[in-house]
Amino acid sequence: MENLLLLAESGMGKTMLLQKFRRDRATSLDRASGVLPKPVVLALMPDEPSEEAFFVQVLKAVDAPLHLPARRNRLSLRETTFRILRELQTRMLMIDEINSILVGSARQQRYFLQLLRFLSNELQVAIVCAGVPEARFALRSDPQLRSRVSDIALEPWRAGPELQSFVNLLVQGLPLRQPSPVDGTRIRRLLVERSGGITLSICRALERAGAAAIRNGKERIDLAALEDPEIWRGIASAGRGQLRPAALANGQA
Q1: Residue 160 exposed, middle or buried by CB count within 10 Å (0-12, 13-18, 19+)
Q2: What whole-number distance in Å separates Cα of residue 251 and Cα of residue 184?
Q3: Which residues of the chain have pLDDT under 50?
Q4: Which of these, 62, 83, 61, 79, lies nearest to 70 by C-alpha position?
Q5: CATH superfamily of 3-153
Q6: Residues linked to residue 41 through DSSP beta bridges, in sequence order
Q7: What pLDDT does 88 receive?
Q8: How far apart are CA 13 and CA 200, in angstroms?
Q9: Are 1 and 148 within 8 A, CB to CB?
C-alpha cells in the first residue's frame, strides 16, 4: 500500500487536518452486522515506540475494551487489534505525533518501523503518519518504508494572498462591531515575522487583538492593534528561521 508522511512544525494544524479527514469519512451503522465501520482510524503515537503501547493506543482509538490479559500478552494484543480492525473494515490507519519514535533507541526504532511494514502488509491498509520535520529521518532510515512512503510538508505561512484569505476568515468570525482593516502587505508581514508563520500563533494573536478591541471600545483590529507587544507576549514562533527572507520581502505565498 502507498503510505504518506505529513510533516509540519508544531502548531501548524496537523492534528486538526487528520481529525477532519476522519470525520469526513465517517460511516453509519451496518444494521445487518451490527458493526459501525471505521474506514479511517486515527491513533496517537505513544510516548515510547513499543508494540504493546502502540496497539493499546489503536484499540483506544476505536473505543475497544482493553482487557488486562490481552495487555500482558504482546502476541494476543496484536491479534486482537488486527481482528478488530478487520471487523471495522479499516482501510487507512493514521498515526499522529509519529516523531515520538525518535525517543526510542536505535533498536526500538528499527523494530517499530518493521512493525509498521508488517501491519500495512497484513491488513492491506494505507498508513498516514504525521509529525514534526525530524520524523522524516526515522521513517526514511528503513529502505523498504522509504520506497513506500511519500512525504508532504505543510510549510509555515508566507506573507501572500493565501495568508490574507485566512486572516480575513478569522477576523470575520470574531464578534467585533466594526469592520477591521486587516488587508495589506504590512499586516501580513507583521503576522509572519512575529509568528514565524505558525498557524496557532497567528490565531492566538488575532484572538487577543479582538479581545483587546472589545475591551477598549474600538471594536476592530488594525495594524496598530497588532503591533502592541502585549498581543504577542508568550506566543511562540517555532517556525522562525525557516522562512526565506526574499519571500517575506516580496510578499510571496
Answers
A1: middle
A2: 10
A3: 68, 70-71, 239-253
A4: 79
A5: P-loop containing nucleotide triphosphate hydrolases (3.40.50.300)
A6: 93
A7: 95
A8: 7
A9: yes
